[in-house]
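Here we describe the complex-level prediction in full. Unlike the single-chain runs in Section 2.1, the two entities below were treated as one system.
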Amino acid sequence: MTKIGLEIHCQLTKLNSKLFCSCKADYREFEPNTNICPICMGLPGSLPRLNQKAVEKATTIALALSCQVPEKIAFFRKNYFYPDLPKNFQITQLNVYGPTSIGEKGMVNVEDKEIRIRRIQLEEDPGRLIYEGTSEKTQITLVDYNRAGTPLVEIVTEPDFDNPKQVRIFLNILSDLLENLGVSEPTLEGAMRADGNVSIENGPKVEIKNIGSFHDLEKALHFEITRQESLSSRDIPIAQETRHWDDRRKVTVSARTKEEEMDYRYFPEGDIPWIKIADARIQKLKEDMPESISSKKQRYVTQFDIPPQVADVLSSDKFYSDLFEKSHDEKNAKDIANLITTDLMGLVDTREKREQSKLKPNHLQDLVSAIQASRITRTSAKTALQEMVKSGKSLEEIIKDLDLGKSDEGELEKIVDEVISQETKAVEEAKANPQTINYLVGKVMQKTKGKADPIITLELFKKKLS
Amino acid sequence: MKIKQSLLEYIDNVKNGSFTCEEFVLETLEQIEKHEEILHSYISINNKAIEDAKNIDKKIKSGEAGSFYGAPISIKDNICIKNSKTTCASRILEDFVAPYDATVITRLKNQDALFIGKNNLDEFAMGLTTEFSSFGPSRNPWNSEYVPGGSSGGSAVAVSALECLASLGSDTGGSVRNPASFCSVVGYKPSYGLISRYGLISYANSIEQIGPLTRTVKDTAFLLNTIAGLDENDNTTIDNHNDDYLAEIDHGIEGKKIGIIKQMMGEGTSKEVVDATNEAISKLEKQGAQIQDINLETVDYSVAAYYTITATEAGSNLARYDNLRYGYDFPLEGYEFNSYISKARKKFGPEVTRRMILGGFVPSAGYAGRYFLKAMKVKNKLTREVNEAFKKVDLLISPTVPVQPFKIGEKIEDPIALFLVDFNTVTANLTGKPAISVPFKVTNGLPIGIQLMAEHNEDKFLLQAAYSLEKDTKLPEVPL
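The structure predicted for the assembly as a whole is:
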């Protein structure tokens, strides 16, 4: 039986500052080596100043993943030399001397499967190495310390996954959950990374590192399972080792250094006293936690009679559900939900588009009222929505500017007559086979640029052709 | 000579116009000039000291001067002062200019202290004679053939030889108290967390503290009023409720219980030192203290535990000196990372190298249980024992160092013999308790200090007791 476990790293990008200093947690907009200070550069004499908010956010993640939160939280030093590590040790956590990391023994449901969370720990991200050329053949390595000290949460699962598809579903659930908690933006480049480990029936555990994206992770897992099965079928022993994902060749390759043999000489970080999180504080964190995705979904279905598939899409995406929450009332909820999940989705499907979107909740409210009052057609509504996202103009302005007001029946009748006189062949066909009448309706829609009400148009044709 | 006075006397004199800050600083600089070649207590001198003094004199005139009135203070060269070199007496930081002030420096600057120079030390504060400085040893002003103690040797020499009014050192296992005892000045290691370590270059961060070296106990109390207390830049600092350490310093010790640490009065302690300690005990007894013996069994293992823990932390704390981000001129090109740093790190001196090797070994997989974790157990057991002792007594007394100063070169080749010099001082560091060395006697021309130790965050009481011990003690002048 195949067993897969994961090690996920997620930056707490929603925090203002790094884990131990006041430099920005979101380093992405800075010129190299400008988001740094004596603390995150590990200058002689500097000391870590623990960001209490990071402890709280990480604890919130632990609670959301049903983890046990320890009585005392402690930090440890992981000692190794690497150019991206300013102090040549990383401040992280360890449960070897009892549970002192942010959380342990949690659980996530992936369809019908329970995936156990072994532990969650809070640690500092190192800087970034930039190679000229490939990492194997580089002559020059550049270091950017802007990222050094960014709060990072490591989530380690038990090897509970049976196949890469479960992994993909789990990562989607986790990513949605982290976004919904307001602790991270998993779609930011490098904000969420995952390594995996794979073993097949009775085989040793093989770790795969250096995986760039979730998509690559799935590919790497597939590759690794096939590789191990193929070795096993030929009775070749599988080595217990760490392998790296080669993005170019799409294969895993044995790591040159045996990382499992590294001795990190862990010992307690004396510069950060042990922290006791009071029960009252944990209670407060639980109370302050945003409504979970599953609870939202349930509520959307029961309260507003929104179809489960629509509720699913709406609740799992924080951007959509925030928009929905801010715009809906008892009367328009279903229509707003539909507008978001059918018409809006294609318009704001990437991070960039979302950031640039000028759409406000009241836009959606106005649009739905206009549709409900038959002031605008669905087709025109879609055009208006596009314009709202682009320019942020009000519905009234857009209707005026783009002439989206619904055609009145007198005008419509003229156009219907016009089409009947022009499309003689289609008219004959429609008379013989009423199902082809839609072609004629389409012609009217074309001529009116979508302003015609399709139902009224259809009725008009039926009347005139009968 | 103006310079022959205490910090508090200086402040009175400058305040009432007996002399100016500039006059005092000039005389201090002359003194340094005169003795530096032999004593070598400084690594660098503030070349703007006279300018600084003039500026402070202006403030004094206009009534705006802070409570230090430009008193020249020297700083051990492992504490950062913005825009000045902070070398740790190491070739690897020879050119390092600190881009920020340590918290203690900020607080002293705000009170118009004047930083006269940076003091010599054993490289990265690892040593107890100042012989391990990469820039040459300091010498004891009582006899220049003798060591001044260490690692804050330069600080103790400067205070003793009238080259400054007071100094800040750091104490990891006795590094303030030991040289204070050897040079006949007051040396104080506060409760762990009382003084911010922000800007102190770490050697063994879980046990070390910045500590003052002064001519009188009152001067230490005065300094403490400015530098002690919570600091948001050091998460390990403790709330001292803005204690005024000077206010009731003459409170006396009548009715207080004092325990003599048996293990620190036996074999290995010289007769002269035992005699001096007994005298000190009688002096306190005469002032109404009750004396009893205290047995701290685990003290016998404290030095071993101390060196295991400090080596582990040092190995990690000094790992950052890979010469990539700062350091000395040594081009990177053509090296693979690991070979570059091992070459760059060859600049560490012999003692630092020795402790790094030890620090790589004692916490390593397969050995941590036998060494590092066992040392941590000793630390915990010792702390429990000392806590128990403080249920019986208010104060613990012992010699600061088991022996008097020895000659330069005498013990440097024998690390184990040297380690044992720390025997009486490491307990305060391992347990986080405050301890002070008070100059008490000069026998055969060489000083002897007495150590007092109190319960955690009882620093105010400790200073009261130290003042009781210091009061009316007549000591000879330093034979410069």
